[in-house]
């Protein structure tokens, strides 16, 4: 180990380390690990970290954003589009800039995605306390706003001396590159410590090449898993996000084909198999296809690969409660959920190990053939739903999805669709035809409104050669839209399709299904006496942010606008009015939403009776 040192500030050492980091990707190529740094400067980071970023701007580009939560969403989407192999960092000042990123940190935590948070912090010396934007706690003198990050990050550290960077930063990177621990990390940087100099070892500025681990299965766990599979007659595979993070799609395809096992997909796992593969039964769960959910109800074994088994996937643990559960997951906590048989391993390596051990074993042929028939029936039904033309009424999401999906003369696999919250994720989960891995990018672990446009920017930065199509409802658009201006500023073209149903249509329908009245969701129901119903011109608003925008009258005009949008080189926003009253009737399953035990409303009391009956079907 070299004993040479160089005199640097903590910020300079941090930035130079990040700029020098390289990672060997799954295809064998070597790339910079950090794709860049999103920054909104303030008094807590502009002088220290800002100066260091300027000096390394050629090796580590800095991108200005318009909203701290938005820039963190973009960084998360970048990492997801890169299958967790590369990251972006984000930095803010010490107060609202930092707390604006807490929601994004939670999103990354839930979705098991890497994000490097570098918020400024108050002075370590405390000489000028309290400083502008400082949170003062009357009981804990060492707290700052950045302590909000502790429960929503996988690793948190506050650097009180510049030398602490030498251990803190490698630990943070270790967490982000660990397949089981992967998630957001936060290094809180007091603004005086950012500017402090120390003798930085040369070795720190020349970090070793990063390689992602692929843990193999334990021999005893593997043997039990093989025995469990061999005893099954009607097995079903649930493909989760871990299949894509592990880039295990080819191993999954070979495993399913060799052993005749049908595959269903979670939101995070959609695109693990091409939509038209004979054994792909489509989406599972609350937003699932009838083909997938029917098999889930009759399977005798569920092999869950790389999924954390959230309630939308499991129907609140009532959908496949009759089946034995075998979970292949790199994270032991996820693998052991709901008393399932755990197989802790990387998704790709675990599938290859299972495949070799099972040899020529296959599911019952009649089960495989039945699954293939259901898959074909559902594919035909998707065509019917997405090509329908509404008669004398507004279109609904499925019809818009069909127009968007079929608007390319090239392979739809070249497109990446991005979405997050509301009704659209449910409809896309069922109806979007994902032809290639990572062509479906829907954030549904945290279901975070406002992720869509910022997430689309991150995907475009990760995959600039792909057409990135953001589908977003009016509610999410109003919640966060400022990164339209960032996409224009950076020259990263997006196609944004805004579906305006004039309210929070998804929760409105849930409210009504739970026995509630129309209340506080649709704009028509929210105007008090003396108020005015808002008439938002989304196209004019998007144009004011620098996009080329239009409002279309119907599906025919939407198709024409999409042709123009694909030919354009500038961010495009297309707005279409839709209805909140219609959704795809096919598929779905029960989802536990607690209904009040006491209510003056008859509708609520009736919903409560049904709720108790459905809860009896849950896995104990």
TrEMBL record:
Pfam family, one: TPP_enzyme_N
EC number(s) stated in the UniProt entry for this protein: 3.7.1.22
Keywords: Hydrolase, Thiamine pyrophosphate
Stretches assigned to the Thiamine pyrophosphate enzyme TPP-binding domain: 421-576
Gene Ontology terms: biological process: inositol catabolic process; isoleucine biosynthetic process; L-valine biosynthetic process
Keyword RNA-binding attributed: no
Origin: domain of life: Bacteria
Keyword set includes Protease: no
CDD domains to which the protein is assigned, alphabetical: TPP_IolD, TPP_PYR_POX_like
Annotated ranges, domain Thiamine pyrophosphate enzyme central: 222-354
GO molecular function (one): magnesium ion binding
Thiamine pyrophosphate enzyme N-terminal TPP-binding domain sequence ranges: 37-134
PANTHER family the record matches: 3D-(3,5_4)-TRIHYDROXYCYCLOHEXANE-1,2-DIONE HYDROLASE, THIAMINE PYROPHOSPHATE ENZYMES
Name of the protein described by the UniProt record: 3D-(3,5/4)-trihydroxycyclohexane-1,2-dione acylhydrolase (Decyclizing)
Native source organism of the sequence: Paucibacter sediminis
This protein's encoding gene: iolD
């Amino acid at each position: 180990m070299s004993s040479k040192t160089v005199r640097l500030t903590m910020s300079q050492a941090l930035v130079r380390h990040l700029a020098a980091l390289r990672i060997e990707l799954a295809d064998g190529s070597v790339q910079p690990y950090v794709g860049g740094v999103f920054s909104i400067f303030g008094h807590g980071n502009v002088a220290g970290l800002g100066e260091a970023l300027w000096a390394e701007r050629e090796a580590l580009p800095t991108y200005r954003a318009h909203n701290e939560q938005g820039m963190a969403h973009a960084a998360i989407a970048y990492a997801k589009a890169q299958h967790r192999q590369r990251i972006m960092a984000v930095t803010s000042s010490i107060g609202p800039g930092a707390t604006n990123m807490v929601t994004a940190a939670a999103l990354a935590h839930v979705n098991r995605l890497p994000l490097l948070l570098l918020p400024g912090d108050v002075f370590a010396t405390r000489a000028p306390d309290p400083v502008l934007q400082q949170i003062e706690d009357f009981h804990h003198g060492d707290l700052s706003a950045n302590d909000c990050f502790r429960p929503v990050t996988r690793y948190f550290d506050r650097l009180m001396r510049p030398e602490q960077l030498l251990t803190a930063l490698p630990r943070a990177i270790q967490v982000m590159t660990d397949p089981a621990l992967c998630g957001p990390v936060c290094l809180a940087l007091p603004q005086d410590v950012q500017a402090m100099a120390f003798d930085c070892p040369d070795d720190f500025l020349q970090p070793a090449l990063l390689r992602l681990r692929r843990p193999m299965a334990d021999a005893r766990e593997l043997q039990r898993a093989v025995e469990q599979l061999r005893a099954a007659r009607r097995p079903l595979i649930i493909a989760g996000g871990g299949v894509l993070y592990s880039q295990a799609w080819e191993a999954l395809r070979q495993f399913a084909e060799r052993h005749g096992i049908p595959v269903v997909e979670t939101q995070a796992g959609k695109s693990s198999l091409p939509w038209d593969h004979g054994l792909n039964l489509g989406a599972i769960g609350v937003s699932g296809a009838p083909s997938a959910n029917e098999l889930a109800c009759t399977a005798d074994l569920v092999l869950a690969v790389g999924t954390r088994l959230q309630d939308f996937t499991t129907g609140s643990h009532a959908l496949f409660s009759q089946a034995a559960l075998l979970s292949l997951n790199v994270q032991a906590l996820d693998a052991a959920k709901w008393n399932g048989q755990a197989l802790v391993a990387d998704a790709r390596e675990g599938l290859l190990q299972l495949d070799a051990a099972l040899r020529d074993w296959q599911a019952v042929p009649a089960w495989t053939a039945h699954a293939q028939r259901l898959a074909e029936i559902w594919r035909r039904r998707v065509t019917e739903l997405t090509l329908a033309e509404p008669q004398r009424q507004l279109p609904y999401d499925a019809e818009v999805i069909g127009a968007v999906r079929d608007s390319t003369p090239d392979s739809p696999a070249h497109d990446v669709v991005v979405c997050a919250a509301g009704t659209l994720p449910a409809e896309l989960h069922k109806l979007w035809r994902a032809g290639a891995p990572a062509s479906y990018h829907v954030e549904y672990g945290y279901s975070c409104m406002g992720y869509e446009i910022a997430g689309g920017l991150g995907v475009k930065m990760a995959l600039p050669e792909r057409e990135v199509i953001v589908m977003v409802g009016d509610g999410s658009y109003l919640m966060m839209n400022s990164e339209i201006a960032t996409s224009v500023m950076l020259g990263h073209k997006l196609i944004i399709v805004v579906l305006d149903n004039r309210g929070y249509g998804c929760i409105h329908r849930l409210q009504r299904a739970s026995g509630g009245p129309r209340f506080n969701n649709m704009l028509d129901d929210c105007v008090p006496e003396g108020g005015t119903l808002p008439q938002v011109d989304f196209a004019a608003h998007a144009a004011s942010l620098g996009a080329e925008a239009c409002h279309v009258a119907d599906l025919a005009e939407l198709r024409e606008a999409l042709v123009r949008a694909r030919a354009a080189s500038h961010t495009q926003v297309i707005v279409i009015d839709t209805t909140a009253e219609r959704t795809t009737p096919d598929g779905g399953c029960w989802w536990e939403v607690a209904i009040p035990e006491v209510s003056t409303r008859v509708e609520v009391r009736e919903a409560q009776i049904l709720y108790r009956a459905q809860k009896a079907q849950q896995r104990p």
